[in-house]
Amino acid sequence: MSTRPHHPTPTLPRRHGRAVGGFSLIELTMVIVILGVLMSVVAVNVLGQGEKAKVRASETSMDLIRTQLDSYHLEYSAYPPTLATLQQLKFLSDTKALKDGWKREFGYRVTPDSAHPYMLISSGGDVNDPSDDIDVWTMNQ
Q: Where would a tag sit more exposed on the chain, N or C end, judged by fewer CB atoms within 10 A?
C-alpha cells in the first residue's frame, strides 16, 4: 500500500454563483459598442460611394449629351431648343441619358449671349444647394 497522504483536488472558486472565466456585462457591452462603431463607419463609406457613383453617372451622361449637342450643331448650325429634340431626331436613343444620377432631368437652355453656347447642369444630390451642382463646362476641371 501507498504511504502518501491523499490531497483533495482543487476546484475553481465561484463568485456570486458564476464560474471564473466568463464575460462580464461591461465586456459584452464594449464588444457591442465596438461593432456598432465599425458598422457605422462601413455604412458611411458605402453611402459615400453611392453619391460618387451618381456624380460619375451624371458626368458621363453630360459628356454624351455634349457630344450629341455638338453633332446637332454641325448638322443644323444651331443648338436644339430642348434636350428632347435630340431624342426626337435620334441623336440620343437612350432616354436614361437625359436624366442625371439622381434620376432628375438635366437643366438645359441655349445661351447665345454668354461665354458658352448653352447651359447644361445637374442639380446634384441636393436640389436646394447650388454647391453640389454639376456644370458641363466646369465638371472636368
A: N
